[in-house]
Amino acid sequence: MKFSTKAIHAGQEPDPSTGAIMTPIYQTSTYAQSGMGEHKGYEYARTGNPTRTALEDCMAALENGRYGLAFASGLAAEQTVLSLLSTGDHLVACDDLYGGTYRIFERILSRYQIQTSYATAGSIEEYEKAIRPNTKLIWLETPTNPLLRLVDIKAVAEVAHRHNLLLVVDNTFSSPYFQQPLDLGADIVLHSTTKYINGHSDVIGGSIVTSNKEVYDALKFHQNAAGAVPGPMDVWLTLRGIKTLGIRMRQHAENARIVANFLSEHPRVEKVYYPGLASHPDHELARRQMSGFGGMVSFQFKGTIADVDRTVRRLKIFTFAESLGGVESLACHPASMTHGSIPREIREARGLTDTLLRLSVGIEDAEDLIADLDQALQEP
């Protein structure tokens, strides 16, 4: 099946008992058993739920993987992947990454003597140089959050596997519609399904996909043992959203292209970060690695933080809010919002300054989005 057909049908056969086309919401905490060790595949809803199984199977299909797992949030999915590490282990991560991920690395893993080294996102040499005898995995975002840098997944996978390491790729920004890291050599793909997968800003969730049975068994054990699982209603909402993922991503990307071109010519904008622009340093890698450039655009504002604040207060269609990937357009100030947990000196050294704005470009009419940005960016 092609992508959008899988999004609508994978793991979502008509209900065998009633013929219902839509996967039912199995709102139950436990399941009847006919005798000791005899049941219909489900015993307790933390361990498994038929609605959740449908989402897990669908996510695996979309990422061309064998096994999927669903979680109560993207960070719950991240924490489950990190459960593969033990005290004294080490990991290598790209330097530009979500603030919540950095917070886990530096304020939670460090308490268990698990250390993290950071490599410049696009430098394959730095990933290899950062590897130590106790390194267990490499962690990537591509495109990165919020500077939209690209990492060559295939090249880093070759480095990881040469050293017997696992490669983990956060594919949230791209979605499986535009990029499928397992096909490029990654061992584990994760998503905040809150974002593009659900696409309607009405549910929190996370997902992991892998084709490695040993890794899957370890992650599945942790999912059940730690219990950060989504409820059936949240899963059902995500399944509902996922059906339109393909058509939504095409419109997100088309609108983002128009917005990026507009911003790149605006006198109050210093720099635009969007891999679809020919001026982006990773544009050719994006063309090879992705089938589209996504719906995220970041830009450096000419002026002060007060000018940024004045601009976001003027926005009428773009909503000033955290998160991304919904059908509505959002504007975010990473330094004070999504990346506020990263110390200023580290943020600024990586290029994330107080005058950077990140846009999640929605699927509204592009002309209205441009008009909104144009009026908001006018001189005081």
UniProtKB/TrEMBL annotation:
Keyword Ion transport: no
Names of required cofactors: pyridoxal 5'-phosphate
Pfam families reported for this sequence: Cys_Met_Meta_PP (PF01053)
Organism of origin: Tengunoibacter tsumagoiensis
InterPro entries for this protein: Cys/Met-Metab_PyrdxlP-dep_enz (IPR000277), Cys_met_metab_PP (IPR054542), PyrdxlP-dep_Trfase (IPR015424), PyrdxlP-dep_Trfase_major (IPR015421), PyrdxlP-dep_Trfase_small (IPR015422)
Molecular function per GO: cystathionine gamma-lyase activity; pyridoxal phosphate binding
Name of the molecule in the record: Cystathionine gamma-synthase
One BP term from GO: transsulfuration
N6-(pyridoxal phosphate)lysine: residues bearing it: 195
Gene from which this protein is expressed: metB
Record NCBIfam families: PRK07811.1 (NF005871)
The entry's keywords: Pyridoxal phosphate
Record's GO cellular component terms: cytoplasm
Gene3D superfamilies with a match to the protein in the record: Aspartate Aminotransferase, domain 1, Type I PLP-dependent aspartate aminotransferase-like (Major domain)
UniProt similarity note: Belongs to the trans-sulfuration enzymes family.
